[in-house]
Amino acid sequence: MEAKMYKKILVPLDGSELAECALNHVKKLFQDGPVGEVILLNAVVVEIPWRELGAGEDGHAKKFDYNALVKTFMDESRRYLERVQSRLSSEGIKVKTETIESNRPS
Predict the structure, then answer these.
(1) Of 97, 101, 99, 102, which Cα lies nearest the Cα of 83?
(2) DSSP letter at 92?
(3) What 3 state SS string does 21-63 have?
């Protein structure tokens, strides 16, 4: 029986151990036959810290840099995906990563 070729496999990850269970299946697919490329995807939900943004001591709203907050979340996601990518790449699997911002990743 001829091995099945997967050109691309998309693996959505949310940072949980449960989501990472999918990586075992990816490794198995790679062992069973050729896998062209694995794409690890993380959809980032930017949680705005509303409680911390209340009025300051002077009664005025505190200044808030939304772009800096998004950058923090996106950077954290990229570091996470790089760690997972490194683990898979060490087993000879070609891996790309993608981080997107989303309010409703599901």
Answers:
(1) 97
(2) T
(3) HHHHHHHHHHHHCCEEEEEEEEEECCCCCHHHHCECCCCCECC
Degrees to nearest 5, angle at CA 73 with 83 and 66:
160
Q: How far is CA 10 from CA 25, 36, 46, 55, 102, in A?
A: 12, 11, 22, 44, 17
Residue type, 100: I
Instruction: Give the Cα separation of 94 and 77 in Å (integer).
Output: 19
In 32-62, which positions are buried (b, 16+ CB within 10 angstroms) versus exposed (e)? Answer: eeebeebebbbbbeeeeeeeeeeeeeeeeee
pLDDT at 61: 65
Determine contact, residues 39/96, Cβ cutoff 8 Å: yes
pLDDT at 31: 86
pLDDT in tens, 14-38: 999 999 999 999 999 888 887 889 9
Q: pLDDT for 63-94, tens place per residue?
A: 778 899 899 999 999 999 999 999 999 999 99
